[in-house]
Structures are given as structure tokens and as C-alpha cells.
Amino acid sequence: xxxxxxxxxxALADPTRRAILAMLLEDDMAVTDVAHPFAMSLAAISKHLVxxxxxxxxxxxxxxxxxxxxxEPDAMRAASVWMQGFGQFEPVNLEAFERFLEAELNxxxxx
Amino acid sequence: xxxxxxxxxxALADPTRRAILAMLLEDDMAVTDVAHPFAMSLAAISKHLVxxxxxxxxxxxxxxxxxxxxxEPDAMRAASVWMQGFGQFEPVNLEAFERFLEAELNxxxxx
DNA sequence: TGCACATTCAACCAAACGGTTGACCGTTGC
DNA sequence: GCAACGGTCAACCGTTTGGTTGAATGTGCA
Lengths: 111, 111
Known about the structure:
Oligomer: homodimer
Strand order of the largest sheet of chain A: 1-3-2
Number of strands of chain A: 3
């Protein structure tokens, strides 16, 4: 179940959160370690991680007293796929894509 | 000069703006025509278009008294390239696209 | 000339965002 | 047992966002 595009794009709109995702690309990390390079409070980073988790861009698993953060590229893939539709390159599957667009147009709230 | 990712992703985070982009995929449109299907004021749509233009996702050209809006996929492409760094997925992954489409159509609530 | 149309401007509003601080809670280890 | 650590919660704050309304600007046309 991927999160709505709203949540995904909103999560990606913040440079701190994008930097966090880039860090997680290297390896899974604990919340404190994620926070370390940033010039802001741990609580702020904790909130950013909640936003990323709500968008399904990461998952968090608590082992002992440390909470591990893991990159979850599927949600980003969904957004990327949505964006690819605007490239207008791919000759294939335009029909399916137009069905998708139509669904979105008919129901913008949930697009 | 593509707009910063901040602006691009923030612009894409709103369902109204994504719907507008989808409409512009069909053809260039005047501001009033863009506004027509939406249940909100023309001024609100005008603001949305400014956001999209600031993100370089569209361009606006005034001919006579009507301002034409044109999709500008390059900015979106820049964001797409950034995202591709996170996925082990290709620029155009039709398989993922079709899985996404299916999920989209079966479960419009979470699309 | 003057009205109708296309669009923006300006002021305003409620809600969401991104950050802070300090208290709090569960876990670990001496 | 208890202090230190890892992380969240709660309250607060200033700014941004997404919308409204009404007035203003500029263009087209009879």
C-alpha cells in the first residue's frame, strides 16, 4: 500500500528530509545518528522521520532502545512513475497512462 | 535553469496542481479554462499556476488578453532524475508502472 | 465610447509547517 | 537501584500555504 502522492511529494519537498533519504541510501541508521550531521534538535529530526514514514519512504523498526530507519524505495518509485508520464517519450502504454490520468482528473482529491 | 527540487516537489505535492499538469498534458490552456473544472475561485487557480511556473513546471505566455499555460516537462525530469538515484529502477519501468496503475485503479482512496 | 471579458492584486483567514524547549518514558549497564 | 542514553510528547512560536472576497488592470469588441 503506497502512500498518496500528496504525502510523498510533500515529504520530498524538504531539503533536510531529502538529505536524510540520501544518508539512508548508504545504510540503515538509528535516529540519533541520522540527526547527528544536522544543526537542529533531535526532536525536529524525529518529526522529519515521522513525515518520511507516513509517506512510506522509510520504515522504522525498534530494536532495544534504538530505532532503526530503513529506506523504502517503493513509494518513491510510485511517484517517479507518475512523473515519467509527463516525459512523453515512451511510445508504449500511453493508453494505460491515460486511463490513470482520467481517474486522477475525475477525483483530484485522492489523486 | 531548472528550479530547485524544493520548489518542484512542493508544487507537485498539491492534488489540484497535479490535476492541472495532467490537463496541460493534453494541450495548452488559458487560465480561465484551466480553472473551469475546479470548485474554487479563479484567483486560487491563478495562484496555483504561479506556483507551477515558479517551479518551472509550466510556462505562461500572454497573447492578447488571454494567458496561455504550457507544460514544461524539463523541471519534472530533473526531479525524476534525482529520484532515480534512490531506486534500483530504470527511468521508464513499465512493469512497475503497470503494478502502480493496477493499485491505483483498484484502490482510488490511496492512490 | 464604453461594456464585457481575462487575469491579477490586496487584504484577510484558518490551518499546516518547521522549528524550539523541557518533561517524559523505556532500555541498558554499572 | 539508579544514572545515562535513545527517542518521543506537548506546548508553544513565527512563517508559509491554500483558500476567500472585492477591487483593480488591461484587452477586445460592438
